[in-house]
Amino acid sequence: QPQLVESGGALVQPGGSLRLSCAASQFSLGFYTIGWFRQAPGKEREVVSCISNSGGRTNYADFVKGRFTASRNNAQNTAFLQMNSLKPEDTGVYYCAAAQGWSKCPDEMDYWGKGTLVTVSA
Hints:
The protein is mainly β. The chain has strands at residues 3-7, 11-12, 18-25, 33-39, 46-51, 58-60, 68-73, 78-83, 92-99, 111-112, 116-120.
């Protein structure tokens, strides 16, 4: 059963940084585009970033541009989301998901993780 597991969520002060990880098992992440999503309390899930299978293409939601960076290490079967200059409005559960093909991100993801909680608060 293909599986994605996120980690790295924590309580952090405004202006701080976190690095989320997304580890894949039972399939090779190198064939998949990875999407990062988040869901704030009481709000719908929204896409944060997509990164192509090679890492050569990325896109970001406007509200994280210049602050968040997606990357991946296919040899480790893991993707990452570096989050800097965090704001209280970045609070939410962060999910990673995998899709076979760049064009499928963010609307047609094949596999989803269960999420990791990020709380930005003083």
